[in-house]
Amino acid sequence: GKEINWLPLPYPIFDENLNSLKPIKKNDEIRIICVSKPQKRKRLQEVVTCIAPLNKIIKERIVLELCLGDIRNYTNEVCELRTVISRLGIDSMVNIHTYLSPTEVLHMMQRSDLFLLASHKEPASYSQLEAIACGLPCIMSADNGAIDMLPIGFGIRIFLEIDNLLGQLIAGIENLEKDRQLIQETKDVLKRLYCSKKTSRSRNLHRHP
Hints:
Largest sheet: 6 strands, parallel
Order of helices and strands: HEHHEHEHEHEEHHH
Strand order of the largest sheet: 3-2-1-4-5-6
Mean pLDDT: 82
Shape: globular
Low-confidence stretches: 4-12, 197-209
Helix content: 25-40%
Structural class: alpha/beta
Radius of gyration: 17 Å
Distance between the termini: 31 Å
Number of helices: 9
């Protein structure tokens, strides 16, 4: 067939609201936040499976915050996810949040330490850009279209296969302070590239994870 050349379009991300976000002082635990619909391609069961051994590897307590949004059409998927969490014995490590407002999600990001999005064949997500605005280092799958607009390596870690996710999580946690500094540089770059007072509607236009 005819070859199609895709051109990534940089959509504006830092309106005045995002530009003003700051991290909030954390507890001793490390909070990993994932903002995602509970669809199969989001690979949340694989995420919680990777999270399970972290408390035996990392000295700090690890907590996974799963923000799933509106789950009315995903009852079976959420039930399966809860079953996997219970089978792994990590109920105390995973908090599932549903029906949060965009403002509530941002507040949770401000109180988190690391952002994770493990989606398979993600066209172009938006939530990791909000995470960057909150100063969070990010871990993302390599087939997320949004990485074409991000300076990979500057507080942003990429995994090629789901089997590589645990290694990237460990590296992200062990290098958290360094990555926090790098993600601030990334935020400054993105602000210069994409910030515009004329694009304050962008967050509503691109709210899906």
